[in-house]
Amino acid sequence: MKLKKALVLLAGAMTFTFAACSNNSTPEATTNNNITDPTPSQEASYLSFISDNKIRVDIMNNDLGVTFNYGNEAVVSQKEMTITSGLTLTYSGTLAVDKLNVISVVQTETGSTFAVNGGLDAEYISEFLAGKKFTNAKKVYVAISSGDINWTKGLNTDMDTKINTYILKK
Fold this sequence. Notes:
Layout: H1 2-22, E1 29-30, E2 34-41, E3 54-59, E4 66-70, E5 73-74, E6 80-82, E7 89-93, E8 99-108, E9 111-121, H2 125-130, E10 139-145, H3 157-169
Parallel strand pairs: 3-10
Antiparallel strand pairs: 1-2, 2-9, 3-6, 4-5, 4-7, 8-9, 8-10
């Protein structure tokens, strides 16, 4: 009887452990070595360097071979553009690299969300960007790079720390 009771307890413990390991309560890891944190965070004002209702896109490499656009407007790296509901980032031309990295930080009225997407296959970049509509965004920062994940450091130390934390998790 003691053996049977011990086996039942062991099976229950193993089930609990398996459930705890398979149900990660912080949805940060996604496929393709991407880290996302869709839970709004009000820890700090990560986008203090951007004006309200603006998006800033930093293109970290000059050799990508494409022109990025926000709606019908060409993106000028490190310049702010007005956020317009429903618009997405696109590009024209042929990418000169096989993989891209995209970091996005979005501030809404309820907080900030982060996504660090490394090593995205070039053939899927259009689809990936089309999914980034920045709904209800108050401020948006996007950094696009090839090679190592990169962004303009020093704009906000809290943002730098948070992004570095995600990169180290990879």
